[in-house]
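Objective 1b: paired records.
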Amino acid sequence: MSESEWKRPRPTPEEVVDDSPWSSLLAPKWSPKPSKGGYNARARSRYRKKGQELERDWNRKGDEINAELMTKGTPPVGKAYTVAKGGCWEWNGYISPLGYGYVYGHGAHRLIYSYYKADIPKGSVLMHKCDNRRCVNPDHLEPGTQQDNVADMYAKRRGKPFGQDQKLTAAQRDFIASRYREGETASSFAKEFGVTTAYVSAIGGPRQPGTRRTKLTKDDQRAIAQRYKNGESSVDLAAEYGVARSRISQLNTKYNKRPPDGST
């Protein structure tokens, strides 16, 4: 996005403090509903009364509110950010234990991005392309889904499923991605390979249009359990019904007493 496509001009560190994009977070969020002809006398009266109540309540709880806001981050003073290596705008205000800037309980990077550059799509997160959590430079931020964020984290080796050192081979990842896109569940793969469902979703990517989670009917479940009990392998049954081998083992436990494949 070019400079001309920003919602507002690119700010200096001092201009961010003067603009105070976080100021709306403290304003009372109430206004009267106008009638067809505008605000009539009754609406104006209700508005004044409501405003007085809000003001009294605000003053009464001021100390309590301010104490709570202090724990979530107060605005920076003077310069909002410092330009660091790589063009990062490092936040000079409150930094959370996880390394993100916060103002009044809201992410500083989200406030700066939505105020100066563009609105953030509903339900989206902002990913740091620079991998600097303290950075609030809108050019270093990119909207995306949480799945995109997790995939980016694993791709850059900034996280491990369950904190384990085990890594799936390329062949295993390709196998999971292919079957996941066809409709097999993330939970079945997570259990079989010892990873998280988020990791499976991240490497699997978006499903094919129209695919849905495989759901076995009660008759299917009983048929699978009976065939497994009669000696058929879990590999063949899993391939036929489009489920994971772990699902076959679950049905065996539910309906039969046969030991799982490979056990003695």
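Objective 1b, second protein:
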Amino acid sequence: MSEKVVKEFHPLRANNIFIYVFFSYHSLAAFKDFFREILTHLELSRGLDKETARRTVDSKINNLEFLGPKIGGEKFDEKMVDLDVHCKSDHMVIGVEIQLKDNELNFVTRCLHDLTKLIGEQFTKGQPAPKTLKESTLIAITNFNFSDTDTSSSFLTSHDYEFHGEVFSIITIELHKTPQYEDLIQEYKEIENVPRLLRWLLLFKADNMEEVMKIAVGDKQLEEVAGILKQVNEEDLLENFGKKIKIETSAAWLSGQLNGKQEGWKEGKQEGWKEGKQEGWKEGKQEGLQEGKQEGLQEGKQEGLQEGMRKKQIAVAEAMIKENFELEIIAKISELSLDEITALRGGKDLK
């Protein structure tokens, strides 16, 4: 079977990297690698040596994991608050927002709003405020001047804020300021010598698969990303969209499954314990406790699985809405009703 030729590939424009690579269950390592390079670049610019910078960054991103893309439950500017990437580690909560065209006058306020949501999600309703917060970081990727130092030639800027030891930051990456492939080859002679962060960003700017493969050559992690991107192009997106989602390329689906199972297990266990204790008081405390735990665990698991499947269906529909698929096609693949899809398109939260 001959390989399809795609005249305009643009991985970032089609959200291919963020949907099919960073959100893929087997590509958490890819996002961790990309994020590590961003933070290392910043630490080096602050005067740390390479070894110390790596140790500092690795400590910050230890146990990195994806979360569902949504933050909070309310609307903002007539649509749900939805991040392109949302994750956490032992010491950080991280969000990524992408805006390629300068056609959103409120992108600045949207980024600030999302940063406050990253902070706010660390609080639990009805519970005391945490004694300390994780470092909250929002990464804003644009293809236009966005930082407050628009005349600067630097493509990466970190706006850091500290309040009584709590740290918050917005990192801006302006793709149009990154060097071109030809200029980097002229400077470094070989692509393998180009700093890895620049190679990552070159992927976002690539126009076709030939460029992607040239950028990735010789780097195991980037070659893995290139291999995934090779399977994704705009011509076969409709044909394979449902299949790609169903083989677990949706982070929201996976997060929903995991969170649903865990929440269901906890709630089921707690309720089962209460019911078991009450029953055990009548028929035998020990016996009732064991039965209550077992029944609560089973019900909790079942409830969690159902909730995970529901989140999967919504995540599939939301992704297809972003790609402007027809309602009937979205309904067929996501298995949601037309009314539900229409509500999602209008910004309603179905969860």
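The chain is about 55% helix and 15% strand. The chain has two domains: 16-237, 240-345.
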